């Protein structure tokens, strides 16, 4: 990829040399330099807030979990059966202790990233039950396939995380799978990673493995992983998610509080009302994180789609998804908490133009919306049913391009560049000018996976479309992969832990999918 | 397409009936309801302005045209050979008389559109020397192919214009082609259209034909067509473009003053400095329109790409193109003139995922940038070398989606939708709720050309990718096309004019391409 930390020393020759070497250095976490797209005025933000608080106070939220119900009673909420009615003052008091931003720690401290405010990261997709592999064949994934995606995540500069189960490894028993997934994330990349929340017990295992990797006390004071907890819209949180949430929050690790929105099916047929319901759902979970542990980091989340009237299937890249992203960003900032969105979603079955339109539209929306934790940033296709290797590397390059855009224009050499206009003059050309030679590559991003050759050259080279180019790129990357060395003692301890837990946990062979 | 003018009467049954009928009604000109992406603060805008004025005063602009040089001398500019040095006060005085916005008149007055400020229109691509046809075969176009694109432009709701030579009709002599192109635009659609500027004489013919269609006096008082005048960056305007500009401005018809930017090749390797040079170029032409005719409408234009270091070819969908669009929009608004941009550009050779990413990225950028005259909004691929029928209909649907986004969220039924949350309650579903049934389709856009079915259904239906779906859609549209009746006397007069001019103009057989 041709994005890198700009050199400020060494002159033209050094810069040229650097350009020719492949660069797999992670870009620092994005600090945005362009304004936010805010489609609501202050009164409209307050109208959403008021509607959400009305819902929390009068409609209630179902917590299908006895411990959560006890917890809510303990802090004075009205509980009727499984329904919890949350007073707006209680909600505001609780969420007030969520940190506005935090540093998310990686195995390599140089790859720590900040989250919240102007600070954003790109995280690859997770949860695909199928992959389209290095030959573009759609099939069930294995642990080796998962390792491949963790390696690619490690190498793509704009990805800030190796996430967790990018694809579901079907060749390992489901009940033990979370151990191998977590180990694969930790071993194949030294970037940040995510932790499995497929059950409370699994989440505890992830916490224990993080304690081995980072140290128990370090874990207590530093976010080192994130766990996703999906809500069941409308207005339901279940025992699995709440149990996993407790496992993470108790150890001070951030969860994404993510209502799962299929707009029009499990929300009203209205963009602002969908946002109000989603907001109520997210607030109820964010508030609960602070019941579990006051001051624990937490992230305002969501999975967001609108559904097809024809098939009921989730759609991607629609205008309402963009608008809702803009609005949700405003709500998260209103409550001063970091927020998560979903990037590059698509419903296409192959990596065709539909996939390109859907993904780029969503990427642009989430950048303008100012999302902090930009999840599902690479590979997602077929409504999340498969992760495509080809799309993975193209999406990751698109993230690098969006990163460049979100930084905003660079003014450092403006006066020299204007002097070049005088040098070149009317009718001249710039390619030979020293300012151009020194600055071209840092001034203009050149996508490696886009072909801009003439049709004649493209034909001569075999009429290669983007899928084939991207798969070829992925193979080259994997050939150049170098594993970031994991401390031997920690590696042994992790393997011992996994061996012990696999003896303790009975193997089961059914599938377990989570998103 | 499933965008329509919302019904406010007739109840649920009437709305349902309307939904099932195909709707080819043009969407009104877009009035944006979301904020602008402005990446410069006031001081940075003034820094661009100052650099541009420095260039105009000290580097000068070459006007390769004796009449223009005389005109500039007449208004007191310093002229040295073909170089014109424009004092900033003169420039500001001249551009002050350009209207901030104007109504662009169509043959059907219901299809008049407003341009400037919050008012924007989508115009299809023009100038392609090849097409990918209804069978996705790449070949030279004919007048029949051009008519096909004019028909599709007429039918796609989000396109506000039939433009002019969407493709170059190779089956008609080049010297007479502008007559047939203009007639095709006028006859096959009653939306706004563009006028050829391939020579001053051709531009005069277009003006005469507009006078026949709209009446001489109407033309004098109302913009009914637009002409594009490309600059040769850096800082050159040629005789062809300036002569065509005079033909349009004298008849009070707006021109697009469009520097042709290949970022890094004919501009400095700097985003802000490229914008400063482009701005100087645009200002010099905008100022000249007012030398020709004070108060004539004119549009701040540009064609914008960055070039590949590998091949020198123009690239599309890059982050710098987005940033420059944001900045150019700010400059146009600083001078209070309407502005034109280029939409959905792409360098892909086929309608693959690259084309989708490039087009969607650019579409999102120009919407956030607030462009008024959004040209090249449908069909562009292969760096403009071909217009793709498949991409044309998909792009046009994408414009309808972007239109919906740019309108912003709709709050009219917010209270009823929140009441539905109370009705449905935790764990319920909305599809059967009356509010959903009444509002679903107006709340959520459903793209017709995206497939969101399951893989099983998609496979059962023959694994049809977007190109094939789009071509099938185009064939259906063309089968349903109804020609908007042209007044018989006007039609006769136009045909007489063409016959006379074709007797007067010697036929030539070389190619003539313009963008």
UniProtKB/TrEMBL annotation, chains A, B:
GO terms for molecular function: methyltransferase activity. Its EC number is 2.1.1.-. Keywords: Methyltransferase, Transferase. One of its GO terms (biological process) is methanogenesis. It holds the Pfam family MTTB. InterPro entries: MttB-like_sf, MTTB_MeTrfase. Belongs to the trimethylamine methyltransferase family. This is Methyltransferase. It comes from Ruegeria profundi.
């Amino acid at each position: 990829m041709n994005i890198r930390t700009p050199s400020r020393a060494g002159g033209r020759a050094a810069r040229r040399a650097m350009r020719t070497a492949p660069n797999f250095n992670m870009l620092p976490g994005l600090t945005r330099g362009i304004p936010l797209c805010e489609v609501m005025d202050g009164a409209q933000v307050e109208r959403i807030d008021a509607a959400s608080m009305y819902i929390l106070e009068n409609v209630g939220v179902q917590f299908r979990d006895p411990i959560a119900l006890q917890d809510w009673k303990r802090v004075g909420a009205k509980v009727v059966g499984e329904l919890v009615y949350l007073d707006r003052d209680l909600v505001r008091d609780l969420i007030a202790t969520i940190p506005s931003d935090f540093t998310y720690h990686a195995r390599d401290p140089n790859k720590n990233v900040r989250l919240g405010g102007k600070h954003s990261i790109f995280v690859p997709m997770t949860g695909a039950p199928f992959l389209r592999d290095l030959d573009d064949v759609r099939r069930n994934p294995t642990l080796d396939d998962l390792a491949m995606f963790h390696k690619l995540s490690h190498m793509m500069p704009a990805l800030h995380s190796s996430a967790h189960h990018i694809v579901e490894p079907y060749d390992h028993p489901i009940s033990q799978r979370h151990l191998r997934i977590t180990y694969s994330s930790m071993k194949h990349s030294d970037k940040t990673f995510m932790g499995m929340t497929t059950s409370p017990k699994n989440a505890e295992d992830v916490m224990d493995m993080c304690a081995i990797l980072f140290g128990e006390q370090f874990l207590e004071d530093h976010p080192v992983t994130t766990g996703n907890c999906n809500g069941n819209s409308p207005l339901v949180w279940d025992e699995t998610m709440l149990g996993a949430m407790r496992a993470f929050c108790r150890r001070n690790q951030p969860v994404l509080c993510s209502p799962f929105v299929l707009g029009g099916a499990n929300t009203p047929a209205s963009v602002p009302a969908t946002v109000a319901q989603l907001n109520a759902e997210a607030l109820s979970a964010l508030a609960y994180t602070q019941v579990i542990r006051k001051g624990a980091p937490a992230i305002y989340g969501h999975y967001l789609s609108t559904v097809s009237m024809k098939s009921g299937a989730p759609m991607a890249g629609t205008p309402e998804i963009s608008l809702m992203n803009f609005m949700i960003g405003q709500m998260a900032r209103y409550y001063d908490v970091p927020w998560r969105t979903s990037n590059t979603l698509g419903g296409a079955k192959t990596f065709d133009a539909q996939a390109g339109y859907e993904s780029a539209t969503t990427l642009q929306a989430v950048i303008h919306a100012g999302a902090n934790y930009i999840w599902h940033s690479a590979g997602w296709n077929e409504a999340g049913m498969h992760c495509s290797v080809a799309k993975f590397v193209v999406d990751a390059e698109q993230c690098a391009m969006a990163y460049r855009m979100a930084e905003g224009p660079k003014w450092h050499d403006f006066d020299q560049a204007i002097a070049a206009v005088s040098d070149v003059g009317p009718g001249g050309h710039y390619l030979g000018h020293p300012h151009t030679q020194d600055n071209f590559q840092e001034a203009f991003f050149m996508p490696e996976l886009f072909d801009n050759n003439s049709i004649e050259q493209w034909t001569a080279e075999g009429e290669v479309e983007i899928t084939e180019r991207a798969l070829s790129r992925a193979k080259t990357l994997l050939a150049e992969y170098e594993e970031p060395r994991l401390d031997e003692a920690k590696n042994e301890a992790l393997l011992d832990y996994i061996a012990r837990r696999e003896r303790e946990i009975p193997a089961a062979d059914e599938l377990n999918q989570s998103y």
